[in-house]
Each structure stands twice: as C-alpha cells, then as structure tokens.
C-alpha cells in the first residue's frame, strides 16, 4: 500500500524552510500529449484506477452536484477530472496510477459537508477537486482544513471561500465574482443602459453577487431601482416580477444559478416584461438554454476565463473529451476542473502521497502551465484570473459577445439597444 503518513519532524522542518521555487511540471498539451504512446497503455484509458507499483491506486476526490438542478455542471466537471486521470494513467512517465472517487454534494451545504467529511476522513484520498456551488464550498473549507486535506475549487466563485480564512489547504483555479461583476457592470453601462432591478437568491452566492454588482454598478453610474431576494427553491416569481414591471428597468440582473434563472426568464415573458435579462456565471450552461428555450436568446452573462475553444489547451481538451465519448458536455467549468486535477496529479508526482507535502507544493505554485493558462496562487490560495469573458445567447448557444451578431449590431437585445 502507499504510505500516507507524514514525514518526520526534522524532514518536515527542512521542507518548510525551503525557499526555492516549486518545480513546475509543464502542461502536457496539444501534439506533445497526443504523441505520448497512448496505444501502448490503452487499457488504462478504459480503467480509471489502474494499479500502482505497490498494488494500490492513488485516489483523488471530486465533489460537485451530480444530481439536482445544476447537475449538468457537476457531471461536466466530474467527467473532466475523470479525463485528466485517464490521461495520467496512460502516461508512461507517471510514477503512480490514479483512481477517481466522485461524490455528489447536490449543491446543498449540509450534503456538501457530509461528503467532504467522508472524503477528508479517508486517508487514502490525497486531495480533492471540489465544488461548483459557492454555498457548499463556504461550508466545507473548515472540513478540509480540519483534516489537513488539500483541495482545489473548480467552479465556486464567492470570494470568502479563499479569502475568508487563513487555510493553507484551500485553493481555487477559477476567479471570483468580484472581477466578474465589475466587468459586467461597466460593460452594460457602456452599452448605454441606465437602470436595473436585481433578483438574487438568498444564499451566500446570490447575496455576494448582489453586493459586488451593486458596488460596481454605482461606481460606473448605473442605478438600482429595486432588489428582491428569493429562495433557492422558489417556483413562483409573479409578485417580484409584477413590482419590477412597474419599475420599468432597462435590465433585470439575476444573481443565482440555472434552475431559478430559467423560471425567472420564463415568467418575465408571461408578464410581458421587455427588460434585458442579465445573469452571472451561474447560468452559463447548456441546461439554461434547454430550459428557457427560445426565450434564452439575447441573455447576457459573464464568466472568468476564456471559452474552452480559445483557452491555451482548449482544443486538445475538447478533442480528448470527445474521444472518450462522455455522454454530457464539459460545460463552462469543465476546463477548470481538468486543470485542477492535473495540478493535483503533478503535486503528487512531485511530492509523493503525503497530504502536507502536497499542500506545501500547491502553496508555492507560480506560473504553472495549464489548459486554462498560467496558474499562480496568491497567499490565500487564489489563482489570479484577470480575463473576464462576456457571453450572449445566440441561436441556442452561448457565444462570446465579440463574436456575436449582437456585437456587430446585426441583432438587437430584448429591449432595443439604446445606442
């Protein structure tokens, strides 16, 4: 069996005192990855948990919503981690073989704490790629810290996940909602819109989006006419939308995730509200378009990072994803989950199967090459993701704004563009 114990105190002290930069394992992408002799080890592409030299597999956890209203995002994330493990197991240069342990947090904080505790208490699981939903991640960081288990967030965007505590085990490869909302507010004001009504769910996720969007909007001169908090399982928004209709805002800003977003957009139509519908990264999924149907057309949303096709390793990632015949797409945050899994695998390859060593490695990551671009963790474990991409739904697909017919004024948004 692999040795999951700690190094002795003297060795640990020597390691902690090292000030040399961590040795980066370059991202293996494009032609380099495709030319690595996969056929010789094709069996490992079919079996996630191949045996290591000592007869056991090194386990990596994945936690995300595999059932429920945002399960499409969770399944896409899980598949992306699974892909990273399959490719690692087919790589002849790797020291270990890896096994995926996937757990369903249902996008519910109480369930998330249960499954995080289950994973963290299992010493054979060396680290986790965890959480799409911010409300869940906020609740589980204490668990990962308690059990000294390194984790990398792959989708949740609430700032206090990384900035709320001084937990060395907690990292995040995707950005936060602060920059996302600043870019969103400036972009919409620059288009000429002036007034907003805000609907947000009353979880930490929704309240965070409300806070940061409002702050940015006021900075750029936009006006909030009214705001409405709604519960995560609310079905009927007639009361809120009736009040919003009377306010006549240019834009309805929605801070929440896909299931509520679909309901709000559908019920806006029933009440003949002509406002633009603007969402957050929480609705950038195929599931939103499928749920809203033709009403999704013209919906705007913003997300940190670029689209998968334009990421540094995006084409390779999508090609390998397709080659493995997953039944569901990777969704918006699949590349982030893939990057997090590769980073965790490289940490294990470099430092061995020891949680504390893996955590120390992750805390020294600077300019790590990944499918999403360079990863650099600050002192809080937060990756610096400067790029925020603007999306609009056109013809049943999320398109980058600059590549859409809306940007070229061939099409107009729901309410006539004031410029």
Q: What is the rounded Rg?
A: 22 Å
Low-confidence stretches: 1-55
**Overall structural domain count:** 2
At the first level of CATH, the class of the largest domain is Alpha Beta
Strand arrangement across the biggest beta sheet: 2-1-3-4-5
The CATH architecture assignment of the largest domain turns out to be 3-Layer(aba) Sandwich
Strand content: 15-25%
Characterize the main sheet: 5 strands, parallel
Q: Tell me the span between the first and last alpha carbons.
A: 66 Å
Topology at a glance:
Elements: H1 9-16, H2 30-34, H3 42-46, E1 58-64, H4 71-89, E2 98-104, H5 109-120, E3 125-130, H6 134-146, E4 151-153, H7 160-163, E5 170-172, H8 177-191, E6 195-201, H9 204-220, E7 223-230, H10 238-247, E8 251-255, H11 258-270, E9 276-278, H12 286-292, E10 300-304, H13 314-323, H14 334-351, H15 355-363, E11 368-370, E12 373-375, E13 388-394, E14 397-400
Parallel strand pairs: 1-2, 1-3, 3-4, 4-5, 6-7, 6-8, 8-9
Antiparallel strand pairs: 10-13, 11-12, 13-14
Helix pairs in contact: 4-14, 5-6, 8-9, 11-12, 14-15
Structural overview:
This protein is an alpha/beta fold. It folds into 2 domains: 236 residues, Rossmann fold, CATH 3.40.50.2300; 143 residues, Rossmann fold (3-Layer(aba) Sandwich). Helix content is 39%, strand content 17%. It contains 15 helices and 14 strands. Strands 2-1-3-4-5 form a 5-stranded parallel sheet. The termini are far apart.
Give keywords.
419 residues, alpha/beta, Rossmann fold, 2 domains, 5-stranded parallel sheet, 4-stranded parallel sheet, 15 helices, 14 strands, globular
């Amino acid at each position: 069996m692999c040795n999951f114990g700690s190094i002795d105190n003297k060795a640990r002290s020597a390691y902690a005192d090292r000030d040399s930069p961590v040795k980066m394992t370059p991202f293996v992408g494009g032609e380099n990855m495709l030319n690595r002799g996969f056929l010789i080890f094709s069996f490992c592409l079919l079996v996630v948990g191949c045996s290591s030299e000592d007869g056991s597999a090194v386990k990596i956890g994945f936690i995300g919503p595999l059932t429920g209203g945002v399960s499409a995002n969770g399944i896409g994330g899980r598949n992306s981690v699974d892909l990273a493990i399959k490719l690692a197991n087919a790589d002849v240069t790797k020291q270990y073989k890896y096994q995926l342990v996937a757990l369903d947090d249902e996008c519910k904080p109480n369930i998330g704490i249960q499954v995080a505790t289950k994973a963290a208490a299992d010493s054979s699981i060396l680290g986790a790629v965890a959480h799409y939903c911010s409300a869940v991640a906020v609740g589980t960081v204490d668990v990962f810290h308690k059990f000294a288990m390194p984790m990398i967030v792959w989708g949740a965007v609430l700032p206090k996940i990384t900035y709320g505590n001084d937990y060395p085990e907690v990292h995040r490869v995707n950005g936060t909602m602060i920059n996302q909302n600043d870019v969103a507010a400036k972009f919409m004001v620059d288009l000429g819109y002036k007034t907003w009504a805000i609907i947000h769910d009353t979880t930490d996720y929704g309240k965070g989006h409300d806070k940061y969007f409002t702050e940015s909007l006021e900075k750029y001169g936009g006006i909030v006419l009214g705001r409405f908090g709604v519960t995560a399982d609310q079905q009927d928004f007639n009361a809120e939308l009736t009040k919003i209709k009377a306010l006549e805002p240019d834009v309805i800003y929605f801070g929440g995730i896909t299931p509520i977003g679909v309901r709000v957009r559908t019920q806006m139509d029933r009440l003949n509200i002509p406002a633009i519908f603007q969402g957050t990264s929480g609705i950038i999924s195929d599931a939103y378009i499928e749920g809203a149907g033709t009403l999704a057309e013209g919906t705007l949303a913003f997300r940190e990072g670029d689209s998968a096709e334009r990421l540094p390793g995006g084409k390779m990632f999508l090609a390998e994803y397709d080659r493995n015949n997953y039944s569901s797409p990777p969704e918006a945050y699949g590349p982030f989950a893939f990057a997090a899994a590769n980073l965790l695998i490289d940490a294990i390859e470099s430092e061995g199967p020891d949680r504390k060593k893996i955590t120390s490695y992750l805390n020294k990551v600077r300019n790590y090459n990944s499918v999403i671009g360079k990863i650099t963790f600050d002192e809080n474990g937060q990756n610096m993701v400067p790029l925020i991409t603007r999306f609009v739904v056109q013809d049943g697909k999320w398109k980058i704004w600059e590549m859409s017919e809306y940007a070229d004024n061939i099409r107009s948004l729901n309410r006539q563009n004031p410029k």
